[in-house]
Amino acid sequence: MNVRRRSAAALAAIAVIGAAAAPAVAADPSPSASTPAGLYGTSDPQYDGVWRQSLALLAQHTVGVIPSPKAVDWLTGQQCDNGAFAPFRADPSKDCDAKVMVDTNNTAAAVQALAALGGRGDVVEDALTWLKSVQNKDGGWGYTPGGPSDANSTSVVIGALTATGTDPGKVVKGGKSPYDALLTFALPCDGGDGAGAFAFQPDKDGELAANADATAAGVLGALGKGLVTEPGKAADATCAGGEDPTPAQAAGNGAAYLAKAVAEDGHLTSALAGATDQPDYGNTADAVVALAAQGGAGKAGKPLNWLKQNSASWAKQSGPAAYAQLIFAAHAAGTDPRDFGGTDLVAQLNATGPSPQGGVVRDSASASDKDEKKAEDKDGSGFGVWWFVGVCLVFGIGIGFLLSGRTRKQQP
Predict the structure, then answer these.
(1) Average pLDDT by consecutive 10-residue portion of the chain (412 residues)?
(2) Any bridge partners for residue 194, and if so which?
(3) With contact defined as beta carbons under 8 Å apart, do 146 and 152 qualify?
């Protein structure tokens, strides 16, 4: 999920988020004296620390990098006693109180990362228990406990459930599952330009507006997938089905909307009030993951190639969550993240935080990597294998931020 989030009081535009996922805080390339040891990135972690750390660790695991124990300990140390995570706790030695704004997106991202890494079962179980305890009666989740459900938050929690071997369809509240909640955000195939898309959530009049970021998240959620996914089976992305689509049909409909959105230029566009439209790198990376997961790697070819040619400067400026999003896109599309348009995304990500523990296995799909691994195995020099949203979040006093390099917002 970039990204890709919300505040306890107000919900603003989002870009998991990204995302995974929750989140594009444009990372400050200059080091910050207050950056905690073990944390990836140098920008102020106040609003995206846990999100970007979770995505960084998950991306490292995805490509066979053994993360630094210091980095893993930083993430686990952010957990509150009730199992939830906030975006950042400056002093983890102090108990969480009502002033600590915990949320579902950061908690679900941490679950996905720590479940993949293994060895932190107690942390994962406590976080999962908390997520289940704040499920809404419609079966979904909002960004904050008790907040209205939205497509991005519900989807990133579905990813956490799947990552822990939990069937999302069996996590029920008020007789409703997360899939039931997701389907309420799906636009019908006769919805004009927004046909098949997912809305972030209904507006004050109960109307749904197509949202590309919510659609990318919704496709993965409807498929029961998390931030990291393999290429799916080849399938057409066409908007079909009646008024009550199944989750799989809704995923296909959402993929059809995304395919149409990237067909002309190869990328999604960020449209912010008062600003010139510009390419949305984080949401485009999320769209690649969604398209590949729903219809196979070939369906994501055009936006993937656009990212290879254009995303290097954005990722360098935005930091670890952006590199992670691109690694997720490369992985989902079956391409080599170590040669992504001439950029080694893995090396770039590793350079934003504590050095990996030391073992790296190249497990990408490239033939050169496979040949190199065979050679390593033969001479005994190989290493062992190991492992939203941006949501625009307003925290109480109205401080906005982008999680996971994405701008999540209701679009007209």
Answers:
(1) 36 35 40 74 96 98 96 98 97 95 98 97 98 98 97 98 98 98 95 92 95 97 98 86 87 96 95 80 98 96 98 97 98 97 97 84 40 36 31 36 37 36
(2) none
(3) no
- In this structure, which amino acid lies at residue 370? K
Task: Pick the closest to residue 226 from 326, 137, 170, 154 (CA basis).
Answer: 154
Q: Under a CB-based contact definition with an 8 Å cutoff, are residues 52 and 41 in contact?
A: yes
Question: CB-based contacts of 161: which residues, under 8 Å, 6+ apart?
Answer: 128, 131, 167, 168, 171, 178
Segment holding 269, helix H or strand E: strand 268-270
Kind of pairing, strands 393-394 and 278-280?
A: unpaired
Q: Residue 46's Cα: distance from chain center in Å?
A: 18
* 228 close to 328: Cβ distance less than 8 angstroms: yes
> What is the C-alpha separation between 40 and 43, in angstroms, rounded?
9
Helix 104-117 / helix 69-76 crossing angle, nearest 10 deg: 140
Q: Is 14 helix (H, G, I), strand (E, B) or coil?
A: strand
Tokens of 143: 């960004």
d(CA 165, CA 18): 23
pTM exceeds 0.85, yes or no: no
Token pair for 9: 């009081």
- Smallest CA-to-CA distance from 143 within 401, 404, 392, 397 is with 392
Contact between residue 286 and residue 217 where contact means Cβ atoms under 8 Å apart: yes
Token readout for 86 is 């906030």
**Residue 79: both structure tokens together:** 């957990």
